[in-house]
Design goal:
This protein has 426 residues and is mainly beta. The chain has one domain: YVTN repeat-like/Quinoprotein amine dehydrogenase (Methylamine Dehydrogenase, Chain H), CATH 2.130.10. The chain is 11% helix and 38% strand. The protein contains three helices and 30 strands. The chain has a six-stranded antiparallel beta sheet, with no helix packed on it. Strands 3-4-5-6 form a four-stranded antiparallel beta sheet, with no helix packed on it. Strands 7-8-9-10 form a four-stranded antiparallel beta sheet, with no helix packed on it. The two termini are 14 Å apart. The N terminus and C terminus are likely disordered.
């Protein structure tokens, strides 16, 4: 491999490392100019025409800052007591743990270093295909990692300072939709390594996409959702303009009858592609990024919202009613329904940066996975439904077993290096 390659992404099959670990993430001190160029511009439309602006990233930073100052004032011992109380309040009751018959591994069975995995609440850059290909956006490039044989390749790289902001797979094929910071969208045939279609319809970043056959939905910071039929010329067949701030959540229902969207304006909308007026409108207390449809219960929709809300909600779209609501105690970044059981998985930010498994009935917590050291912004499930992958601002991807069977970890001597020598920015 060439010697001028800029980063390495290591696959570590054990979490507990010695100080001499071979884990490598490039120093950020040499990337100050690059980080400055990645700063996101403010929306081009006038703020006077919008509702009060949310910023989940800023709110998260303020919470961390206040918590840090609080710990400094209270001292080490007091801070330890504070942390212990927090964990007790959010943990599973001991009685419930004793009744559980399932076994869960305490650590992920695989960890990948992911340099330049963006710590941005509004992006969606991790997704898992039906053929066990994991698509990951690192900086301005899209990578494919094969879960079955550990092979990796770079699919595409945008211009030097044009970050990848969103991606998603078609549920029934190996077509990947990719969105960029400048509003561009591309459709890729990953087997042929061919860009099938390129769209330049949005004015700002495209952070969420959803693909159902030939119907592509794209949500942008320009506040619009565009529906494209990929069989027609490069003009959207419908434009949805209900959101007053950035669209950060977007999902087709399993049968393509509806799609749900969440925005930074705290709104949840459910649309039919046959009309541009929403069939259901609901309001949260923070940005709605986490959206998932159930494949086992027709019309069931789960949503989760940001720092000022923290609630996991379950809706019946047919009746337009709220089935259940649970205060999770922290920012909800993602939600997904299990493919094998009547459960949901959520990922969270401050304060425990955890991954939680819930019973759909009653929203009772089944198990909590911990290990990330920053908010868990990305989540995807394997096609079998047995595993999930989570990505966080700590620049790692962690693979978890949902308890169907006990997973053994690989010894450190069997570690191998992945994504090594694949240039990210040069």
């Amino acid at each position: 491999m060439a010697s001028n390659l800029t980063f390495s992404l290591s696959a570590l099959d054990a979490v507990e490392r010695s100080p001499k670990s071979d884990r490598f993430i490039p120093s950020r001190t040499s990337f100050d100019d690059l980080a400055e160029s990645f700063r996101l511009s403010s929306p081009k439309h006038s703020k006077s025409s919008l509702e009060a602006q949310n910023d989940e990233n800023q709110a998260y930073g303020e919470i961390l800052k206040n918590n840090f100052n609080l710990r400094k004032k209270r001292g080490a011992q007091t801070c330890l007591d504070f942390e212990q109380r927090s964990l007790v309040n959010l943990d599973i009751p001991a009685k419930f743990q004793r009744q559980s018959k399932r076994k869960f591994a305490k650590i992920p069975f695989k960890v990948l270093d992911a340099p330049f995995l963006q710590d941005d609440y509004y992006l969606n850059v991790v997704d898992w295909s039906r053929s066990d290909l994991l698509a990951v956006g690192l900086g301005n490039a899209a990578y494919l990692w094969n879960f079955t044989n550990n092979q990796v390749e770079k699919l595409h790289q945008f211009e030097e300072y044009n970050l990848l902001s969103g991606l998603c797979w078609d549920r029934n094929s190996d077509v990947l939709a990719v969105g960029a910071m400048n509003g561009r969208v591309q459709l890729w045939d990953v087997h042929k390594k061919v860009c099938k279609k390129e769209l330049e319809q949005h004015q700002e970043r495209v952070g969420c996409l959803s693909l159902f056959g030939n119907l592509l939905l794209t949500g942008s910071r320009d506040r619009t959702i565009l529906l494209n039929d990929l069989r027609t010329p490069n003009q959207p067949v419908a434009r949805f303009t209900e959101h007053k701030q950035e669209v950060c959540g977007l999902k087709w229902s399993p049968d393509g009858t509806y799609f749900a969207s969440g925005g930074n304006d705290n709104k949840l909308f459910v649309f039919s592609p046959k009309t541009t007026y929403p069939v259901m409108k609901k309001t949260h207390k923070a940005a709605v990024k986490a959206i998932a449809w159930s494949e086992n219960h027709y019309g069931y929709l789960a949503t989760g919202a940001g720092t000022a809300d923290r609630c996991l909600r379950l809706w019946n779209v047919a009746d337009k009613r709220l089935i259940d609501c649970k205060d999770t105690g922290s920012q909800v970044c993602n939600v997904i329904f299990s493919k094998q059981t009547d459960e949901l998985v959520t990922t969270h930010g401050f304060s425990n940066n955890e991954v939680c498994l819930w019973k759909a009935k009653g929203l009772k917590k089944v198990h909590t996975f911990t290990g990330h050291t920053s908010r868990v912004l990305y989540l995807a499930m394997s096609p079998s439904g047995q595993h999930i992958v989570t990505g966080a601002g700590d620049e790692t991807l962690r693979f978890w077993n949902l308890g169907a069977e006990e997973q053994t970890t690989v010894e450190p001597k069997q570690r191998n290096s992945l994504f090594q020598g694949m240039g990210l920015l040069r």
